[in-house]
Design brief:
DUF222 domain-containing protein; DUF222; 440 residues; two-stranded antiparallel sheet; 5-stranded mixed sheet
Length: 440
């Protein structure tokens, strides 16, 4: 193209891009003359070339964000910020919206107050993104890592530029997560003798991030200060110990036990009612579920952010945590809304602790402070929040007894556990030794 023919109005350029993309999709997926017709070397070259093109599309994101903020597009849509507007209009997560804004601010060319062109704040990384040599995820990891290094008061301009250059070079070699960890190694290289203030650096680089995956699970990543790390270990390590008993072997890995220990701590925090309120309501997990799915124990329920959870898992969670279920009919009308007062109150909990003195599953030694209050007859099945329908159970046994075929029964006001037929053909109820000792 020559002259003005190469400078298309953005809408026309987008239409041309869409048409070219349609052609590319058709060509690549052609079962006869498409990618399947290429040998491995040509397929590899195409894969890399297409990834470079995908990475370069971030430049359009930068232009969109810059134009939106310059023209105050968020105000036009009656939204308080560009980030909120992007989330609403494009159905982005907050993490993705802020990543796009961060990239636009750091990687776009600028104009001075006098109208003179200025290079991007991170010119080396900006050039790599423009060439398609770094993905949006890699670029964001690098930007956040550089922002942490910037907080070091003694960092020189040369060291700052060197850090950007090293991280950008490694974008061709390392995945995004490793780039985040490389920041610490760069810091050690810049300051081998520990001249920089360790405390300031640790404070500057502290972080905790999470991302909701497609299946609704939460992927965590971060770096805790030594003090916070010691607190976390002090809380989780006692709860993450093996919970073997003569009746049920604990087959969880160490990582799984740590996860379950964190779940126990979160349950206890929600039960305590000391978390900050949201809109005047104490921190609570709200979920909606179809009435038929609830009755039949099938299908899924949805949390307020759209994350789904299988109905059986919800019922297990709702037995103890501060969960408010809203039951809907097929048309979406509210049939009933549960209330968190199904949870045992303080006096009932004290009575449970006095009676059970810990997890009541035979052989378990978990202390009552780390147990959950279990409805013997499930609350969803009409079970009452009464002392003769409640017992203390640790996280592990609460989440695994039904799956392994056990059942709990209240006999004379005391919890007994019925083993599966595979373990005891007669299914003779078993009682924790604590209750037997109480009678002697």
């Amino acid at each position: 193209m020559e002259g003005n023919a190469a400078i298309l109005e953005p809408g026309r350029a987008l239409a041309a891009f869409d048409a070219a993309l349609d052609q590319l999709i058709h060509s690549a997926s052609d079962p006869v003359g498409g990618l399947l017709a290429l040998d491995h070397a040509d397929q590899t070259r195409f894969l890399r070339a297409f990834e470079r093109s995908r990475n370069r599309m971030a430049l359009v994101d930068h232009a969109v964000v810059t134009a939106s903020e310059t023209s105050n597009l968020a105000d036009h849509h009656h939204m308080r910020s560009t980030a909120v507007m992007l989330q609403s209009l494009l159905n982005l997560s907050g993490h993705e919206a802020h990543a796009r804004i961060r990239a636009a601010e750091q990687l776009s060319a600028r104009v001075s107050t006098t109208g003179e062109p200025l290079e991007a704040r991170r010119p080396t990384l900006a050039a790599a993104v423009a060439a398609g040599q770094a993905s949006t995820t890699q670029a964001d990891q690098i930007l956040r890592g550089l922002a942490r290094l910037d907080k070091l008061a003694d960092l020189t301009d040369d060291q700052r530029s060197s850090a950007e250059r090293v991280l950008t070079t490694h974008a061709r070699l390392l995945p995004a997560r490793e780039l985040g960890r490389l920041v610490d190694r760069i810091r050690d290289h810049i300051d081998p003798d520990g001249r920089l203030d360790d405390h300031d650096y640790l404070e500057a680089t502290r972080r905790l991030e999470w991302q909701v995956t497609r299946d609704g699970s939460l992927r965590l990543e971060g770096k805790l200060t030594p003090a916070t790390g010691q607190k976390l270990r002090a809380v989780l390590e006692p709860l993450a110990r093996l919970n073997d008993s003569p009746q049920m072997s604990d087959t969880r890995s160490l990582e799984q036990r740590r996860h379950d220990a964190l779940d126990t701590v979160l349950d206890r925090t929600l039960r305590a009612g000391t978390t900050p309120s949201v809109g005047g309501m104490p921190a609570t997990v709200a979920v909606t579920i179809d009435h038929d799915d609830l009755v039949e124990r099938t299908g899924v329920a949805r949390f307020t952010d759209g994350t789904v959870i299988p109905t059986p898992a919800l019922l297990q969670m709702a037995d103890e945590a501060a969960v408010i279920p809203t039951v809907l009919n097929r048309a979406g009308a509210v049939l009933s809304q549960g209330r968190s007062n199904r949870l045992a109150n303080r006096d009932q909990t004290l009575a449970l602790v006095t009676r059970d003195r810990g997890c009541t599953f035979p052989g378990c030694t978990t202390a009552p402070e780390w147990c959950q209050r279990h409805h013997v007859v499930a609350w969803f099945d009409g079970g009452h929040t009464d002392l003769d329908n409640l017992t203390l159970v640790c996280h592990y046994h609460h989440h695994n007894f039904a799956r392994l075929g056990w059942a709990c029964r209240m006999i004379d006001g005391i919890p007994w556990w019925v083993p599966p037929k595979g373990k005891d053909p007669h299914q003779t109820p078993l009682q924790h030794l604590r209750f037997q000792r109480m009678r002697t």
